[in-house]
Amino acid sequence: MADTTLDPKNADKRTAERYIRRGQLDEKAWTQHLATLPDVAEKAVPIESLLDDDADDFDDEDDAE
């Protein structure tokens, strides 16, 4: 039988739980992989975005004139 286990670096947070349940990813290997990842929080930058509802609010202000 072929080895069907995944290398943890090929999984992400969204899929790792599913792979662990299926036996395709070893939970211990996943935990060790996470421990090796660098903390890059200081590289984060704030972003601003408008949601559809917010964009509609701007249109309403124009309509009031």
Write the layout of secondary structure elements.
Layout: H1 13-22, H2 27-36, H3 52-63
Fold and architecture overview:
The chain is mostly helical and 65 residues long. It has one domain. It has helices spanning 13-22, 27-36, 52-63. The mean pLDDT is 78.
Count up the domains.
Answer: 1
Task: Count the DSSP helices.
Answer: 3
Secondary-structure element series: HHH
Q: Count all strands and give the number.
A: 0
Largest sheet: none
Q: Please state the average pLDDT score.
A: 78
Radius of gyration: 22 Å
Spans of at least 5 consecutive residues with low confidence = none
- Span between termini: 73 Å
Helix content: 40-55%
Classify the secondary structure makeup into a structural class: mainly alpha
Kindly report the oligomeric state of this protein: single chain
- Name the overall outline: flat
State which percent range the strand residues make up: under 5%
Kindly summarize this structure in a few lines:
The protein has helices spanning 13-22, 27-36, 52-63.
Protein traits:
flat, mainly alpha, 65 residues, 49% helix
